[in-house]
Amino acid sequence: MVVNRDGFTCAHEVFEGGRQDAKSPNNMLDILEKGTGRLEGSTIIVDRGIALDENLAAIRGRECHYIADQGRIGLQGNEEPAF
To answer: Angle at CA 38, nearest 5°, toward 34 and 39?
Structure first.
């Protein structure tokens, strides 16, 4: 899902079940970009299946922000969740 600076959804894509999203971040970003016309500055919301370091780097490489499942990133064991 892509949201704009005001928090409104600009585009989303639901991928086929059983697909390994983690291996296709650039394809996912291309599809979302086609739906919005441009991703730069947008916020991409991803689930834990794609929230891997190299995939998040690909999102940052397109000059986007992201919100990702903290199950894969963020908490190191003893920190409290943000909310």
So the answer is: 100
Is residue 73 domain-resident? no
Q: For 13-46, how does the pLDDT look when each residue is reduced to its tens digit (9 = 90+)?
A: 776 665 565 667 788 888 888 877 877 888 888 8
Angle made by CA atoms 70, 61, 80, in degrees to the nearest 5 = 15
pLDDT in tens, 44-68: 888 877 888 888 999 999 998 898 8
Count of structural domains, the chain: 1
Q: Is residue 41 in a domain? A: yes
b/e 20-38 (16+ beta carbons within 10 angstroms → b): ebbeebeebbeebbeeeee
Q: What is the distance of C-alpha 64 from the center of its chain? A: 9
Contact 10, 36 (CB under 8 A): yes
